[in-house]
Specification:
Its EC number is 3.5.4.4. The protein is an alpha/beta fold and 365 residues long. 47% of the residues lie in helices and 13% in strands. The protein has 18 helices and eight strands. α6 (82-98) runs parallel beside α8, α9 runs parallel beside α10 and α17 (325-337) packs antiparallel against α18. The two termini are 31 Å apart.
Amino acid sequence: MAENCSDNQQATFDKPKIELHVHLDGAIRLETILDVAKKRGIKLQAETVQEMRQLCTLDEPATLTEFLSKFELYMHVIAGDRDTIKRIAYEFVETKSQEGVIYVEVRYSPHLLANCSVDPIPWNQNEGDLTPDEVVRLVNEGLKDGEKDFNIKARSILCCMRHMPNWSMDVVELCKKYRNDGVVGIDLAGDESLNCKADSGHKKAYEEAVKCGIHRTVHAGEVGAPSVVREAVEVLKAERIGHGYHTIEDEALYKQLLEDNMHFEVCPISSKLTGACSPDFTEHPVIRFKDDKANYSLNTDDPLIFKSTLNTDYWTAKTYMGFNEEEFKRLNINSANSSFLPEKEKNELLNQLHMAYRVALNTTF
């Protein structure tokens, strides 16, 4: 089902779109992986695009562990290589422009792309490895070049990793350093069973983010319980929730987040193939979000692995979840409102959407 986008999928919603939850390392072109592997003399388990697609993508629902194992097949080709990191950022912007996206926030772990060891800071640098700081600079350069060439606005979110709390203070410092140079927020990704205890690097990093006005999102309630969402909101002071599907299992929490206009970054195709939600799309939690007029976006998450595009997610929402054009307009306007852009740029983006949708600026959805 999550095949490359057909003409029908492309036409599902052919107006400007916003995307807020997509991972750079999960959105790399297979052709690029093969090309870089050849240039770097790295042997892969596949030699053609078709073989790589069969190797790296999911066709049927799997576990989150099986999904994460796909990254191990190609990340060693990308991580630590200067030219490649800038290249994948540039190509990412081109791809999103082709999908009708006019603003995107792409996220990644600077440490993983730098090929850092899992040892606490300072990191062991192997020959050819980068520092996380260099990675952020290179990604920024690639995104900026893509913006100029493809008439799209692209910003980035830097990820902390739940299994590496020793990296998190460094991540927030990078957010602070590059906050006026392309980086708009901080994220926490990884195994939701690893909580953010009082003395954890994650909690301290997010406290610093709050103090310095760094925008905050957290992966929570994807496969984890509603308690993980509550922790994200109450402990880490998240402004957005990555996924958040299992929030609806705690009615009191869900009601509170509706009242607070919390934004949920929903990824339909991803949620099926990672086993986060029922494989029956007609039972997906986003239907509840839609019916309750919740604040949410539609996103791809890791389109390389899911063999999808943003249009695939829109087509799925229309075909199986009862979405129509008005709902697509509503969720994109909410996405722009919930973006981490400065207010002036956010208002410009909203004006662009309202003009494209021919919706009055004072319209309430």
